[in-house]
Fold this protein.
Amino acid sequence: MTSDHFNTIIIGAGPGGLSAAKVLAENGRKVLVCERNTRIGTKVCAGGITLTGQNQAVPRHLIEQEFPQQHVSSGWQQTIIRNRKPIVSTINREALGGWMAKQARDAGAVIKTGCRVRSIHGKTVQTDAGTYQFDTLIGADGATSLVRRYLNLPTELIGTGIHYHIPGVLPEMVWHLDATVFNTGYAWIFPQANRTSVGAYSFRADMGPKVLKEKLHQWMDGRGINYASLSPKAGNISFDYRGYQFDNIYLVGEAAGLASGLTGEGILPAIISGEEIANIILNPSHTPSKLARLIKNHSRHTKILLLSGKSNFHCRVIMESLVLALRLKLIPFSALEMGN
Ligand SMILES: Cc1cc2nc3c(=O)[nH]c(=O)nc-3n(C[C@H](O)[C@H](O)[C@H](O)COP(=O)(O)OP(=O)(O)OC[C@H]3O[C@@H](n4cnc5c(N)ncnc54)[C@H](O)[C@@H]3O)c2cc1C
């Protein structure tokens, strides 16, 4: 094998790409991760990590704030969901990226930053840093994946997340699911170590980014949250899942459309799918039970979202029923987790 030839090339050093790189490298595979940014983990993200993620994928030292209480409201209801353990915690994406990159590098993976992949031809990728050959390729390149486009897979189910990082730490973690304002989406307040992510998410077919931003501003104004001198950051969230294996090319995380269309949760789905795809590459008869569970949850989330989007009536009934079910403890908050 020449220095430009790798068993597996992974495009993208997000949580999906880095988790796959670690598993493959620690099993002796020659792995290259190509990341277009010069810094790892600069992804626009609110940094919310669910209980399953805290237990299975993120070490304690990366947790910035823990929230055993969730403040959930809708048009008609307001409730506080309580648990003994933190229901959702927050992390810093650069810290997560740095930690995951170290794990992958320690296992032997080569990670090249400032290395945008420009094109794929047969078993070769052309990047800003040179041309490399692969036996298998993993597209871990997020919601606007080049690998997905190379495979001619459309991306139709896509959401938008917009947020501000407000200086200072607001006291509560908040979810606001008001169908009259955000349709099938919601607004959030996720406090971190010394700043707070305040944002909103919506399925694009229900509400475009411009209207979502206006609604977010109205909601923040109503809560007295000052964003006047700050710039919002926005990103796509893809949940258009159409498979993960295409001959010797695999997709993980958002490149595979594996985020939740309902909540926008995508960190843990990326980590789970990265690990599982790596295990499938190492052993084609591996049974990916965690991935199967993830895909089942993903499909349930998509069905609820698409049903809510049928009309404003459907949306109101479903959002209010969801909040009522949480309020009456008919379902635990963990029922909304993707990795549960
Ligand atoms: C506003 C917002 C808030 C969010 N909040 C949360 C949250 O609180 N909790 C949660 O779980 N999820 C959240 N998400 C979703 C979450 O951020 C993503 O689902 C998750 O990062 C997906 O991981 P990934 O590894 O699949 O892709 P990404 O994290 O997007 O990583 C893809 C990587 O590929 C690189 N790349 C892309 N193209 C190329 C190329 N051609 N060549 C080389 N490199 C390339 C990118 O630079 C990037 O580093 C949020 C998203 C948004 C937009």
Summary: The first helix runs from residue 15 to 26. The two ends are 41 Å apart (CA to CA).
